[in-house]
């Protein structure tokens, strides 16, 4: 006469007889393996941070472009236009006067190969004495052709 419950399992070519407690233990192991494993959040934190930064950059760039277009449609004396030359260098154009559809600009005499160094060119002695006229429409076309890279309006005005 048996003293406990007996189960039979087939493992490989041979048969084994095991007690109920052993099968219960094996069942718990298999169910634990069947549950989806979870990867700690810290492994994905860098990817998540990169995605947030990229999204922020896209949003900021979009807002900056809208702001630049608004500045081009309503130019003021003192506005600075960062321009890219045909050679790929960067320089500045400064608004001297804006009346009606016409905008008078002074070109900076110097150029730099890096867009990060353009701010160093903004000195009064670097601008030519002669001003030239462009229309607001010409400025918008330059912006669409990416000849005007950035528009800055001094905060003092």
TrEMBL record:
Superkingdom of origin: Bacteria
Sorted UniProt keywords: Membrane, Transmembrane, Transmembrane helix
Transmembrane segments: 43-63
Protein name from the UniProt record: Uncharacterized protein
Biological classification of the source: Bacteria, Pseudomonadati, Bacteroidota, Cytophagia, Cytophagales
